[in-house]
Each structure stands twice: as structure tokens, then as C-alpha cells.
User: What shape does this take?
Amino acid sequence: MVTFLISYINDYCYDRDHILLTQLYYLYASILMNEKDYKKALSIITLGEKLIVNHCNFSLLSNFTYSKGNCYEQLGFHKKSLKLYARALSLRHYNKEDKL
Assistant: This one.
């Protein structure tokens, strides 16, 4: 169901809706991480990051970066995850509602 929803929004998303789509990517990646499907979560996180960069909306970038670090940590890439955690901390000023 979630995959269908993201596919639908991708097909019909207008520029003003990119924030909603970004939030859906983040929520979907969170669901995948809870299900321990870290590789698929990384692919969804990457899509969300691209959307953030393309639309210059950096409010969720720290959250995406933190989640990416979490995925890499769970997959055993500890050095990479530490770099991503540090980057997430440095990006926090973009997100006023940061949950880190």
C-alpha cells in the first residue's frame, strides 16, 4: 500500500507537493528500518535526499542523513555511519523540528 501511494504521488506530484512527498519518503524509510529492511530503506532515503536537493528544501535533510547513518550502522558499516551521524548534527540548523 505504501509503495503504491509513493508511486502515485511520484506520478502526480507538483512542485508545491514536494514537501509532502519528502515526508512520505521519510516515513516509508522509517517503516522499512523498523522492519529491518535497511537496504531498501537506504534506497528510499536516497530518493528523499534527491528530492530535497532538487527542490532546495533542506528541512528534513538532517533526519534523512541520520536515518542513513542508522541503516549503515545496522549493516555493519560503522565508520560510514559515524561520518553520517556527524553530518546530520552539522545539518540540524536547517530543521527546526529536528528529532535527533
Summary: The first helix runs from residue 2 to 12. The chain has a mean pLDDT of 82. Residues 70 and 81 are 7 Å apart (CA to CA). The two ends are 28 Å apart (CA to CA).
